[in-house]
Amino acid sequence: MPAFLLLILLATGCPPKPPDIENQPASTAPPKQVFDPERGVSIMVPEDWKIVFKPGNPFIFAMAPGAGDYGPMVNVVVEDLSQRMHPYDYLQANIPTLRLSLPQLAIDRSGIETQGGINLAWIIYSYPRGSVTVRALAYAQTVEFKAYVTTGIAPEELFKPYETAFRSIGRSLRVEPGR
Known about the structure:
Elements lengths: L2 H7 L21 E6 L4 E6 L3 E4 L6 E9 L2 E10 L6 H15 L4 E10 L2 E12 L2 E12 L2 E10 H17 L1 E2 L4
Antiparallel strand pairs: 1-2, 2-10, 3-4, 4-5, 5-9, 6-7, 7-8, 8-9
């Protein structure tokens, strides 16, 4: 199973309704760097977000204040690749697998960006989890034979206020050379 698929499987065991943080604005706290020394990966997240490191994949979780099972949160995964791939090709190659595990998956839009000389690809998609529609923004970066993905997840009604934060976090992903 591709590591990218794990991003979606995290939203299981859901409450009947999303967390009651609808009227809270997305954080305006200054960013802080979160670094995983084992993988040489860092992201910048709002200072007031809770950070959890896990030994498996995803290995970094960053949760907004008041986040519930469906977020708002961001996670980071790394996947070994059998060949070098452009990040956009990597994301597109994962869509069939996502559709198998999430038959009601809806792809909204996707694109390519360059940030600080780093090629990034992104995709926005949604899927139902019980009575909640979850919306996600994934940013992918490939380095040699690895793909690194940040995914921001939130209930659909909370996605728009957090989209800027999700994009900022996705764009901040850095990988130390040689990792």
